[in-house]
């Protein structure tokens, strides 16, 4: 049976037996938290458990590497909507050790695309159109630096409120240990004391 076949079969039983009642909540995050994290399969259940989160506690956004790569892309839009429309009051960017985006090189991704049948002509067309495939498909060297960079991208956005803390963390995908890279409350306190001196 295919994955989608198994999913649909499970879903019929899930709904019929009303197992969904254990997960009932509202669209507003109870802990007023929005999390940007990686799509790594090891984090699906580990991350919420390691953070003490239950269904309904946080808005969770996932992508490859927990990276904000463009200030006006869908990741940043989702973060802003979580704050302005869904009552989130803190942001956490959570990367992880052993991430597939670490040391990722565009040449390897493009070679894999060709093996899947993407013609070389498509790649050339994108390059000639000014698309920086190397930059777009290249990962990062150090997870801590990548997390700090994403925190800075969020905080520097012209529509991001200066009063909302943005934390940066790294989780170990085996143990769930969280290491704090950027303490958003500490950053806000420093900014407020600097403003008081002016």
TrEMBL record:
Binds 1 zinc ion per subunit. The keyword Metal-binding applies. SMART domains: Pro_CA. GO terms for molecular function: carbonate dehydratase activity; zinc ion binding. Coiled coil: none annotated. InterPro entries: Carbonic_anhydrase (IPR001765), Carbonic_anhydrase_sf (IPR036874). Zn(2+) binds at residues 38, 40, 96, 99. It catalyses: hydrogencarbonate + H(+) = CO2 + H2O. Its EC number is 4.2.1.1. Keywords: Metal-binding, Zinc. Its cofactor is Zn(2+). Belongs to the beta-class carbonic anhydrase family. This is carbonic anhydrase.
